Amino acid sequence: MSQTSINAPVSGGLGMPIVTPSVQARQTDQRSSDSAPILSLSGVSIFYGDYEAVRGVDMTVRRNEITAMIGPSGCGKSTVLRALNRMNDLIPGARAKGTIAFHGQDLYAREVDPIEVRRRIGMVFQKPNPFPKSIYDNIAYGPRVTGMKVANMDDLVEQSLVGAALWDEVKDKLKASALALSGGQQQRLCIARTIAVRPEVILMDEPCSALDPIATTKIEDLMHELSREYTIVIVTHNMQQAARVSDRTAFFTAEVDEASVRHGRLVEYDETQKIFTNPQQKRTEDYITGRFG
Amino acid sequence: MTTTVAPNAARQPEIDYRQALTQRRARPAELLFKVTLQFCLFVGFAFLVSLLTYVVYKGWGRLDSRLWTQMPTGRASRVDQAGVQSAITGTLWVIGLTAAICLPIGIASAIYLEEYADTEKWYNRLLELNIQNLAGVPSIVFGILGLGLIARTLGLGFTVLTASIVLSLLVLPTVIIASREALRAVPRSIRQASYALGATKWQTTWRQTLPAAVPGMSTGAILALSRAIGEAAPLILLGAVSFIRFNPDSLLASYTTLPIQIYNLIKQPQAEFQELASAAIVLLLVILLVMNSIAVFIRNRFQKSW
Question: Is residue B56 part of a domain?
């Protein structure tokens, strides 16, 4: 089952601990490394106005896997993540080139409705952002606005909270304000809210960066559970976290081109075990051993 | 290996910490600043208190039920039997209708500008600039506009409806600006959370942004209406009749309002009229106070549900 033990850190060349992941825990989780692709990016570049923030990304996200995106600040990993459910549309001047295909359908085709995209590809944000409503209403909001046919909303709320490992803590105060919960509970509520609309993919943008280590552990355990039913893409600054939770890891970095403009680039994308034990690119190795970034 | 010495290491022993930490230096600038602030507060407060005291003192003899049960009169011989009932009802009619006109339009405009408009586009920026400038136009100008366009050209005459439309135009910029501020204060993360669940723009605005902005909007709305309720200048041009002996009973009725009534009473030479004017001023202030209390109540009530 899902063990999240962290092996004792081994000293790297500069006296800094390098990451030694227990990726085996993930790999033995009876999933084959060739499960069906659900999101395919080919030649994806993302622009803010005239500025090309990310250039030429090719990668494939597979069903029921956890895909991590790591890299230094400003390397475009969050930008790529937000492109996957068209949240970038909300930023004036943002646009994407190339193809992002979801089950083969290009998400940026003219006739695609971003509302429908976001119903199927949900998102959990860096800072917990519950609605200023009751816990119950936070969960029920998504199903209500998307017009889901719900036989019994109480059951759906319970299932969602159970699914986000929050039910036992809040079952007696469903009508209480969500803002009264702790940060970690709020983030699990946000996850519960996301799974209430039954998406296929959950995007997580540094979901633990505002949380303490105990709350972080809970979210990571939860991600293991969720990956049975959902496909997860997570952006994280925490390399240990990527190593602990993910099946595949994409390493991004910022490159300066001939015109001395910085672009985010995907450097290497592979099984997490390979990225952390035997990276093919020097830059990846430098980053994960702490020599850069 | 590091060879730099910590900067504090050199001068450690001689300091008497008890003496150093307990000595109280005089800080004249600090004191002066505080006294100045207190003085400014006192000036504003003193003016308000002296005004209130003076008005209550002057109007004390007339602060009774005659004020709201009797109709105004211009005849000195009957001043004992006079009140300002038609001005009270006129004010309530005009301000109620003003609210009904300017709040929906103002809030809708604010929602458009804040949530829907692409502020990169020149026409939206022009619109914004216009609204800000309109907020500074003297109210008498709105009165002239109302007289020419609404009372005469549109033929609505000197009625409650005309007065309400003009007062609505007058306070609309204030309502729009206050509502935009309230919308802008709603965290972006709330909108994003809603969109990420598959909500449309309309659902996000109606179910998340707008409810969260209600406290700020209601404060702005009440402030705007408070300004409208105290306006006399545009209504002088719009035929608010001075001594009217009946209450308005429809949108197209003649009317008077409290500020107009106060203005006309003060103009009378007899002291009795001026006493009545003071009593009417107290009444107007009470109405304003009640409105502000409602704003505070709404704000607190909605904030609790957060």
Answer: no
Which positions in chain A touch B115 (Cβ < 8 Å)? none
CATH number of the domain that residue B212 is part of: 1.10.3720.10
d(CA B268, CA A80): 76
Q: Does domain A10-27+36-288 have CATH number 3.40.50.300?
A: yes
The sign of the CA dihedral B147, B149, B150, B153 is positive
Tokens of B251: 């949108």
Side chain identity at B160, as an amino acid letter? V
Eight-class DSSP state of B207: I
Contact with chain B for residue A207, Cβ under 8 A: no
**Domain ranges within chain A, ordered by starting residue:** 10-27+36-288
What is the number of structural domains in chain B? 1
Q: Nearest-CA distance from B276 to chain A in Å?
A: 50
Contact assessment for residue A96 and residue A105, using Cβ atoms and an 8 Å cutoff: no
Give A126's DSSP letter. Answer: S
Specify if B170 maps to a domain: yes
- Kindly give the confidence (pLDDT) of every residue in chain B, 306 residues in length, as a single tens digit, with 9 standing for 90 and above: 445 555 555 556 688 888 888 888 888 899 999 999 999 999 999 999 999 999 999 888 888 888 888 888 777 777 788 888 888 999 999 999 999 999 999 999 999 999 998 877 889 889 989 998 988 899 999 999 999 999 889 988 888 999 999 999 999 999 999 999 999 999 999 999 999 999 999 999 999 999 999 888 988 898 899 989 988 888 888 877 667 777 888 888 888 889 998 998 888 888 888 889 999 999 999 988 888 888 888 778 776 444
- How far from chain centre, in Å, is Cα B295? 10
Non-local (6+) Cβ contacts of A27 within 8 A are A33, A247, A271, A273
Q: Is B207 on the interface with A (CB under 8 A)?
A: yes
Host domain of residue B221: 70-304
**CB-based contact A118 B196, cutoff 8 Å:** yes
State the ipTM, two decimals. Answer: 0.85
Q: Is B118 on the interface with A (CB under 8 A)?
A: yes
Does B207 map to a domain?
yes
User: Which burial class, exposed, middle or buried, applies to B245 when counting CB atoms under 10 A from its CB (0-12, 13-18, 19+)?
Assistant: exposed
Smallest CA–CA distance from A120 into chain B, residue? B198
- Yes or no: say if B95 and B228 are a contact pair by the CB < 8 Å rule: yes
pTM of structure: 0.80
Give the DSSP letter string of B231-265: --HHHHHTT--SS--S---STTS----HHHHHHHH
- Whether B201 is covered by a domain: the verdict is yes
